[in-house]
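queue> holo job accepted (nicotinamide-adenine-dinucleotide)
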Amino acid sequence: MTLNATEQTNHFLQQGFDILKIPPRHKTLLLTPARELRVEIAIEMDDGSLGNYIGYRIQHDNSRGPYKGGLRYHPDVDLDEVRSLASLMTWKTAVVNVPFGGAKGGIQVDPSKLSRRELERLTRRFVDQIAELIGPDTDIPAPDMNTNAAVMAWFFDQYSRRYGFAPGVVTGKPVELHGSLGRDAATGRGCLFAIREVLAREGKKLEGTRFSVQGFGNVGSWFARLTHELGGRILAVSDVKGGIFNGDGLDIPRVMEHARATGSVVDFPGARAISNDEILTVDCDVLVPAALGHVLTKDNARDVKARWVLEGANGPTTAEADELLESRNVVCIPDIYANAGGVTVSYFEWTQNTQKYRWPEQQVNSKLEDYMVDAHRSIARTMEEHRCSMRKATFVLAIQRVQAATEMRGLG
Ligand code: NAD
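queue> job finished
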């Protein structure tokens, strides 16, 4: 039976609930989103026609702090996907121990079909539709798939027109507009710290370790670039148009130049073409799915040759694939830890906005390292205590923190 996105996330949570013996009424509380909003976004297109889009904002839990989570523009966005991603944010902010809850938003749109002006109108109209429910101390969106600093700038501006200057309403803003230094690279850099810590625990080094990376956007390209700089060997990378492979390792700065010039990694000289399916089964040490969800399934999990799966993307491994991988001793470094660098630096950005003070990039990067190392230490302790997989331990840690906050606040 194929589970939908929310059921996949709930499956992992259920494993944590079982280990912690969470009572049923608390389970319901932890699983159910606090608020779900669906809006219609009507905009005038450049040719004068009417564009009609559906957007969502789902606020899952705020027991540990204001709701926090990205905003995704993608044709596949639907209520189920956003609901699952909102829940993941609750557990992610808890794992890295930043004082936020979890939320997610999305618009069902293919942004490559819209002009820049249309995208701006879409974003501003969406802000108008959800404005009453967000705010610097209420719910703070951020970039996700197909949204970036430019989209966050429109977001901030539209909100501020209504409520006055409020840079903390959104994170991932341009550095020139109250964004944080280091935010752009943060998720990829956080992934790097995560795998470095996991390898070190087994007495291994990043240098010489072989990687295959699916997705060459914000997360994938920054991860590949930083890992390459530290001597990691990136054998394969891909984007929506296809992938490239070189068994000796790709020259990542040159791949980045090629992708910038041509719009894709495809046809990079000195590499052979591989498909987005093949990239998942490349003979390597660490597989990094950093594009879409649900790419590792029961149909391909047996063919994964990597020893570690570093989840740069949200929800890339289905419940069935997770079981197959675990039975083959493949270690999944779960999304709620692996890609938490983004929300951690979002927290630093929000802190800087609140303090009206700018941190130097070195401070941002070194604080990010502290948070990722600390979280890894707590996860490793939980793995030892409960003798369970890294994914189960990470959910256990997160559930314990959210459950404690929920209980302390009370239900009255
Ligand atoms: P992005 O839009 O910058 O890049 C996405 C990449 O995936 C691009 O290279 C795109 O070509 C590729 N892609 C799209 N469709 C594909 C397909 N069908 N097959 C293969 N590749 C495809 O997005 P991003 O910000 O890098 O996010 C990637 C993943 O990481 C998402 O799951 C997102 O939720 C997660 N994530 C992002 C952040 C962040 O800070 N950006 C933080 C945490 C998690």
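queue> The longest strand covers residues 50-61.
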